[in-house]
Amino acid sequence: MRVLRARRSRMSLARQLFTLQIVLILLLVVTSAVLVFLQVRNDNRTDTEHQVTTLATGLAELPEVKRAVAGEDPAAALQPLAESVRKATDTDFIVFMAPDRTRYSHTDPELIGLRFRGNIDRALAGESFTESYEGTLGPSIRAVVPVTDDRGEVTALVSIGVLQKKIGAELSRRLAPVVPVSAGALILAGAGSWAISRRLDRQTLGLGAEEITRLYEHHDAVLRTVREGLLIVSPRGVLILVNDHARRLLALPEGAEGRPVLDLGLPSPVGPLLTSGSPVTDRLCVHGDRVLVLNQERIERHGRHLGTVTTLRDHTELEALAGELDSARGFAEALRSQAHESANRLHTVVTMIELGRPEEAVEFATVELASAQALADRLTEEVQEPALAALLLGKAAQAAEKGVELEITDDTAVAEAGFAPRDLVTLVGNLVDNAIEAALAAPPPRRVTVTARTEGDSLLVRVSDSGAGLDGAALESMFRRGWTTKQPQGARGQGLGLALVRQVIDRYGGDVEVSGDAGAVFTVRLYRGTAPS
């Protein structure tokens, strides 16, 4: 039993279907042939019964027959008549008989005068009937009809019959075309089933039903549990498959499968990438409020392009953390630089004291400390969001290390609550970083000015720099992922900062104004209470 089950499991789905089709076709052909045989046999019997009944009735009504029956020697008159009619009608026997069964005629003249073998009771009662009976010549289908006189009394009987062997021969003749037709139908249907099974075998890669079921179960389980978005797009740009994670990441509607990707309303760059059919490796894409990493590969088999398979990973949190890490790293570098500078100043102060000039030492030490402490005190007092205050202090130190003066305007004042600290760090940090880079790329004096203040239910952030400004043609595209004025550095993609800024602006229903005549000026306004929960 196990061996049989193993063989059955190795049998491909196409072969199983072909076997079932052949069995079904054979059953249908045999059943049809049997039904045709039964129908033809029934029709042949009905025709024979009708023939012998009609002929016997006609003979019984002939005046010659009635006169012969009433004559002195009925046999002498009826035997020649019976034989001539039998030969003309191709029947096997015509028997005239008396009501007491005495034969007046027969195919074998020696049987004339002997008793008729068969049923005649119904005919004696004046009824015509047919029956199957084995007489002296063998099994036959016969009709027995009464011969009546002018008064309606039965004076004789006539029986006409056809032997079963002759009926069988006629049946064989009628059924002769059925055999080749059935064989041809069987061959044609078998050839069609074989062609269909070959095509199905190619389409199912020769897999069996159990293997296909197992693959589907595993396929469905993987699609539901994998923590990456997965999409398969046909060469014509139709979305063939999408798993639940990809549906959530791209906010796809129900019933997206089977629809062209262009009809799903996916904005650039995700939509064009999915329909391009081009291989893509670790491409960062900003989609709505998410940062996605997209990988795409072409599917090819036997030289045929079958479409593309695309995977999506959500890097929103990772990119935000990476931005914060960059800020922390810059802050640490600034602290390291300040520590180094502080050590130099401390040595200077100690040396001046040793030289007997304490007043100059105190003045030298307190001038720089007062300036730095004043900025820290002002930010701590006016900026009630600790993360934003720390960011501004760090960026000031980072800019100073790079030779850029970062000015935080006196009207900077940010009230607490209403905006997520991470969003503020992303917004202000990226704008300031871009401004510092722009200032460094321009000739001295290098300057960056930052303003952040709360105005009612909104937050105003303005960052300007002393750089070369912005090209007017770039204003429309600078917030798209990939736009940058920097030279590529390292493996990490450029052009993501302003795209993340755009996300924060959209999240709070804000707006941005950019001017770029004499250095770039970014003015952003966010509104409290509009961020999604």
From TrEMBL:
<dbReference type="InterPro" id="IPR050980">
    <property type="entry name" value="2C_sensor_his_kinase"/>
</dbReference>
<feature type="domain" description="Histidine kinase">
    <location>
        <begin position="337"/>
        <end position="530"/>
    </location>
</feature>
<keyword id="KW-0812">Transmembrane</keyword>
<dbReference type="InterPro" id="IPR033463">
    <property type="entry name" value="sCache_3"/>
</dbReference>
<dbReference type="InterPro" id="IPR004358">
    <property type="entry name" value="Sig_transdc_His_kin-like_C"/>
</dbReference>
<dbReference type="Pfam" id="PF02518">
    <property type="entry name" value="HATPase_c"/>
</dbReference>
<keyword id="KW-0597">Phosphoprotein</keyword>
<keyword id="KW-1003">Cell membrane</keyword>
<dbReference type="GO" id="GO:0004673">
    <property type="term" value="F:protein histidine kinase activity"/>
</dbReference>
<keyword id="KW-1133">Transmembrane helix</keyword>
<keyword id="KW-0472">Membrane</keyword>
<dbReference type="GO" id="GO:0005886">
    <property type="term" value="C:plasma membrane"/>
</dbReference>
<dbReference type="InterPro" id="IPR029151">
    <property type="entry name" value="Sensor-like_sf"/>
</dbReference>
<dbReference type="GO" id="GO:0000160">
    <property type="term" value="P:phosphorelay signal transduction system"/>
</dbReference>
<dbReference type="InterPro" id="IPR036890">
    <property type="entry name" value="HATPase_C_sf"/>
</dbReference>
<dbReference type="InterPro" id="IPR005467">
    <property type="entry name" value="His_kinase_dom"/>
</dbReference>
<dbReference type="Pfam" id="PF17203">
    <property type="entry name" value="sCache_3_2"/>
</dbReference>
<keyword id="KW-0808">Transferase</keyword>
<protein>
    <recommendedName>
        <fullName>histidine kinase</fullName>
        <ecNumber>2.7.13.3</ecNumber>
    </recommendedName>
</protein>
<keyword id="KW-0902">Two-component regulatory system</keyword>
<keyword id="KW-0418">Kinase</keyword>
<dbReference type="InterPro" id="IPR003594">
    <property type="entry name" value="HATPase_dom"/>
</dbReference>
